[in-house]
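User: I'm putting together notes for a lab meeting next week and I want to include a structural view of one of the chains we've been expressing. I don't have a solved structure, so I'd like a prediction I can at least talk through. The sequence is below, exactly as it appears in our construct file.
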Amino acid sequence: MPDALPPSAPHLRPAADWQQLQRVALLGTRQSTETLPAVPGCAAPAESADHREQQVLLLAGVLSTVRKAGFRPPRAGADAPETSRPTPATTFSEERTAAATEAAPAPADSGPAHRPSTAAVAGSETAAPLGPQGAQLLQLMLEGTEAGSLYGFLEDMHRHQRRVPPRLLVGLLEATRTRRELHGPASQVLGRRGEWLAAQNPAWQPVLLAGATAPDPATWETGTLAERRTYLYLLRDTDPTEARTLLAATLPQEPARTQAELIQTLAQNPDPADAPLLEQYLTAKSKEVRQAVRPLLARLPDSPLLARLWQRAEPLVRLKTGLLSKKLLVELPPADWDKTWLPDGIEQKDSRFQGERAALLGQVLALLPPARWAAHWQLAPRKLLELAAATEWAGLLLTAWAEAAVLHQDAEWAGALLAWFYEKPRPLPATLPTGGLVWQLTPEQAADLLLPLINATPHFSAEVGWLSLLQLAPGPWPERLTRRVVEVLRDTLSKPVELYRIQYAAGQLLEHMARAVPAAQYRLCAEPLQPLLQDVPYLHNSLARLLNTLHFRQQLAEVLLE
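Assistant: Thanks for the context. Below is the predicted structure for the 562-residue chain, given as structure tokens.
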């Protein structure tokens, strides 16, 4: 295939030719009599018994490359740019990309930017490209090596004002186009040439849209559901009233699933003015829509829903104060569920709570901020947990308050609940949202919770209570937590007799550490653990993967300064 395809080639139709080639391949080259597509510059193989099969494979490779490169047909009436050889402004390492796009030449690094209307226009390229070592490490991640580090590295690149080298732009766009969580970080490091390139291929444009800083009205009318949500997020930042008005006019016309997705955009920058719109959908026919609305209303400051829920709950959970003691008195709602509960966000049944009336009370408590009870009775969360445990409805109260702590992102209650459950052997409710509670804590708060538990039981086994919490502890871990965990691991792994019993639990912990331990703590892990590599056959791979990942991430941090 030549270095550049003629821009005016009349038979270069990647979409139609691809469908034609698929028909031939599905039917079989010997059974199908349909002519194979003709691609300019692609020579047919010599006549032989299987030359038709060879030509199908050759065309499949050529058309796949052209389609991935973002081929666009020339615009009618426009003079085709000269592309016999790519100009310096369009010279990528992947020259076929610049040749096949058949759009305006890519902008030079210092020239005027060309971006779609949904993107911010940059006056000049200010970010420097990664150096040679950084480009090499980025290429390894795009090829699958340490791919889990890609998100963090793209974020770090943006913070250090670095961009992707031109030769890796196609690889980055291809690697991230189907991974929505990477769209935002990738869009920030494309540079102006990458933004131009992403605009040429519809498959890459979602990456570009994720970096938009101003809403484009056309997106709302013609975009996908994900693009329309992005539009609303951007509009909420600039004109929340207009976003709310647009949403109110659109929701009645949408199916339930779309309604639920669009309503979620109101979670950004909660506004008490959202309450009237959300209240309408508390009684929606779709349970999915009702479930989307309830937490948003519950988190609104001075929400009318919370006022109604408090009126229901306060008479049912009372504090009896004696001369020397206090006691919680819990009653269930006096009547079964009816439709009057629905405007308050309460369903007839809830799998988190056993029994219909118990489910009513549990749902009410799970929506109310737990800090409201502590303020109402002037008691610390720890004291309330002890009083709740002494009632016959301990499981209901503790589960509901845990759900409420997660919903309202209450770190104080989350820490109190976890400490209360794990300091002593206590039965954990089956529905306790342990992961959600841990994620309300900062890494320092998690360390404050975990270190006393580890010190109380300073040995590693699958049965120790702190292990499940440690495997959920968010990163980056403080050095004091990493140091203590490494000490316990070293002491355990130095006694290989029991290794086969702990290999699964230890392997899981090492995998989590590879994500949570900062790269700067590589030596803290490597010096005590590396000498054990040859002595832990059951855990050799997991331990080596931890050390290799930390070392790789340490290199990533260094190349940002290259």
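A couple of points you could mention at the meeting. Confidence is low (pLDDT under 50) at residues 1-10, 76-104, 110-123. Strands lie at 128-129, 162-163, 317-321, 326-330.

User: Perfect, that's what I needed.
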